[in-house]
């Protein structure tokens, strides 16, 4: 991924987390919303944090794992946003915008993960990139 694309995705993930937290402030307190708010806060911030960690990973498998976790957390965020929307909690217009954004982010993260899974073939001590071999220390 190009540096600008990486920065743009990092910024989108950060803005998504901030927007979810701002949305959650519009959700009234009730017994049923406690877990929804907690899970949404954890999953939306974790998606961005794991993506950031993937950018500083020491190995390709570590980067791939962090992207995979980021995707799983984004899926979870998308799910809980849909639950909140179905229950009519908070600002529905804002929730629908967040559902759309989380769907787009899921697709982007899935695309990155698919590219990593298709391009990189692990051989003990090496990575085949189709045209050549890059040697990394054994994991």
Blueprint of the fold:
Elements: H1 3-24, H2 31-55, H3 60-86, H4 92-119, E1 121-123, E2 126-128, E3 133-135
Helix pairs in contact: 1-2, 1-4, 2-3, 3-4
How does this model look, in words?
The model is unreliable at 122-137 (pLDDT under 50). The protein has one domain (3-135): Up-down Bundle (de novo design (two linked rop proteins)). It has four helices and three strands; from the N terminus they run H-H-H-H-E-E-E. It is mainly α. The longest helix has 28 residues, at 92-119. The chain has a three-stranded antiparallel sheet with strand order 1-2-3. The chain is 73% helix and 6% strand.
Q: Give the count of helical stretches.
A: 4
The CATH topology name reads: de novo design (two linked rop proteins)
Q: Give the N-terminus to C-terminus distance in angstroms.
A: 23 Å
Strand content: 5-15%
For the sheet with most strands, the description reads: 3 strands, antiparallel
Main β-sheet, spatial strand arrangement: 1-2-3
What is the helical fraction, as a range of percent? over 70%
CATH superfamily: 23S rRNA-intervening sequence
Counting helices, strands and paired strands, the structural category is: mainly alpha
Roughly how many Å is the radius of gyration? 17 Å
How would you briefly describe this protein structure?
With 139 residues, the chain is mainly alpha-helical. It is 73% helix and 6% strand. α1 runs antiparallel to α2 and α1 packs antiparallel against α4 (92-119).
Keywords:
de novo design (two linked rop proteins); three-stranded antiparallel sheet; disordered C terminus; 139 residues; elongated; mainly alpha
